[in-house]
Amino acid sequence: MRRHLHLLTTRHEPEGPLVAHLKSGLGAALGLGLVGGLAALTGWPLLIAPLGASVVLLFGQPGSPLAQPANVFGGYFLATVIAVGTAFAAPGLWWATAFAVGVAVAAMLALRVTHPPAGAVPLVVMAAPAKALLLFPMLLVSVATLVGLALLLHRMPPRVAYPKGVEAPGGLGPVARGRVGRAGAEPSAGAP
Length: 192
Hints:
Largest sheet: 2 strands, antiparallel
Radius of gyration: 18 Å
Helix content: 55-70%
Number of helices: 7
Distance between the termini: 26 Å
């Protein structure tokens, strides 16, 4: 029993410097603040719940494949197409919404643009079906704002290569297993 509890409570994320965590939190707050400000200016409901999870990936786990721009844009686009189609084909049916989430997950995986927060888009459409078509421009503005900020913020110290495979400014190489290293440096043998 103790072994099973240990498996459930073991943390697998590598430790990182406090300044990097604070920068991630600042990026998330600033990103959602920018989207909220745009919402106030335009009158569009740009701040939707899935974006809260997106900022965790964009600013907290920028080396993850799930946080890459193609995944963020592609995942939200696919999920929105599926959600809007479902809203028009089977309006207000909870089981159709659940099915739409499953189809969105399968499509993101098949096309290799998985972005887990996008899986919630069919639920957003079910909650506000009258605004289903507005979701395309809303998400484009919101996601472009967040990804744009992530591109800028990850170039500030402590620098992180974002998107994946791009050299970080200042001679730093790409993220190695969630850590920033010097160009050409190998992660330590004990790195996860």
